Amino acid sequence: MDLVEVLPQLDMFRFRIGQGYLWRDGADLTLIDAGDVTSAAAVEDGVRALGHDPARIRRIVITHGHRDHYGSAQELADRYGAETLAHALDAPVIRGERPVPEPDLLDWERPLYAHGLTCPEAPPTRVDRELAGGEVLPFGGGARVVHAPGHTPGSIALHLPRHGVLFTGDAVASAERVMLGVFNVDRAEAAATFRRLAALAPRTVCFGHGDPLTEDAAAVMEAAANGG
């Protein structure tokens, strides 16, 4: 796993597939996505390498119900007493009560999707708090939950207006360029979500896959969302 500083309060964990983020409010920590089922030890090591105690992880926000984003959430939450949060529409998938919805794949996405399935399956994982969108979570000066459907029905983004930071989950990706995320269950809905996220005019954008966007973020997001 690579550990990448994005901002003084924000670091990225780059896993074999996908990535998660650690936001720091003093000693209190928030984890946005937790990597796959093999990632708990790497997250703990990364937190300690930053000079922090994993026992200060207060919450784990799961952006959506795909195995590479919540596989280690249960282990970390159990170990440190963290609250797990996810959207109500994806919570049954995360808990193992419903199957993962099948994406509407384009031909060029099929080999990428097959590679993604090499990620180990996630165990059934509890969701302590189900979200609907519009909630303001107590970190980052007030983190607003944005329902971001299309990739999955219950995908969410997190917007920290005070810091100009946007976590997109897999609604948007960065693969040589900023683009609509792949493997969407509803491509038209996903494109509409992309436009809504771009309209937030963030200064820093953190994706579920790909390098964070830290320069001209608002302009780049707007152009990409509108086909530029």
Automatic annotation (TrEMBL):
SMART domains, alphabetically?
A: Lactamase_B
The record ties this protein, via Pfam families, to: Lactamase_B
Which SUPFAM superfamilies does the record cross-reference, listed alphabetically? Metallo-hydrolase/oxidoreductase
In this chain the Metallo-beta-lactamase domain maps to 17-209
Checking PANTHER family in the record gives:
METALLO-BETA-LACTAMASE DOMAIN-CONTAINING (PTHR42951)
Question: Can you say what this protein is called?
Answer: MBL fold metallo-hydrolase
Which classification does the entry list for the species? Bacteria, Bacillati, Actinomycetota, Actinomycetes, Kitasatosporales
